[in-house]
Amino acid sequence: MFGQEIVEFYHQTVQASLRQSPFDTSSKAAFAAWQVESRERLSAILGEMPAETVDFNLQRETVEETDTYVRERLVYATRPGLHATAYLLTPKNLSKPAPAVLALHGHSSGGKDECLDPNGLYAGFARTFAEQGCVVLAPDQIGFGERKFPEGKVTYNVMVHGLNMLGHTLIGVRYWDLARALDLLETFDTVKADRIGVMGLSLGGEMTMFVAALQERVHAACVSCYLTSHQSTFLDRPHCTCGHLRDLARHFEHVDISAMIAPRPLFLEAGRKDDSFPYEDAEALARDLRPIYAMHGNDPSDIGVHSHGGGHVIDGSQSIPWMLERLNQA
Ligand SMILES: [Zn+2]
Prior knowledge:
Order of helices and strands: HHEEEEHEHHEHEHHEHEH
Distance between the termini: 65 Å
Shape: globular
Bound molecules: zinc ion
Number of helices: 10
Strand content: 15-25%
Strand order of the largest sheet: 1-2-3-5-4-6-7-8-9
Structural class: alpha/beta
Number of strands: 9
CATH architecture: 3-Layer(aba) Sandwich
Radius of gyration: 19 Å
CATH superfamily: Alpha/Beta hydrolase fold, catalytic domain
Helix content: 25-40%
Oligomer: single chain
Largest sheet: 9 strands, mixed
Number of domains: 1
């Protein structure tokens, strides 16, 4: 039987092909040049993007009012023929523009609603940021919440693989949605545009990584239960295939994409009981990035990591205060 030989061939191919464009810290100039070139390469890996933006055609309705914030449901166009749905949480009685957080759910069928549930996987983090004075935009990502696929031939998997065959990617479509979400936040006079953070769990963490890496207007990022390595996750065991981008692991490991965020503040949250994203790898990734933050003269706490006692969930006990501190800096 030759089965084991095939597995060995696969492992050898991973070793031989992985991470051919690693970050370069030989000097600040070399690192800056690597970032410019790598963002371009990463953007190409995400696939074709629209040539121009469309009018948001924004619709909003108030769906909840608490003591501290108002929650609206938004519908807005992100490209021709495609609309995003989202919640916008706006603190009451703002006397000046507030920091904002783009709050991203993962593979959760409830989409944006799950980011609000204090008893769910997300510990209600979207609400917590609003209660702490931030404007929060929590969109539904394609495939979840109000953007679930209807019954029919075109299923989630057909779209993931079909888009790949066409030079697009589902991650790239989601990325563009989120770039437009940042544009939308910047149009609100309640938002301090240079203090926008992004935080997400799992797929939401992955999207946080891509958006923060490519959008330098993101002031701070918190990735929960995703940032580790391709090698210990997608290349090692079955996962949903939406993140399996052609050539991504050939060029960049997670640490390299994270280095595209540096020296902007980055926090990694990991779960010691998370079976899919090993916390040891999250801690190693943060260690590997520290010299980049030191080279740029940042405070060491601008690259943070917290391995909590839970599983594949947002803990928030360190990540949320960390984010609030970064977003409230003058
Ligand atoms: Zn997926």
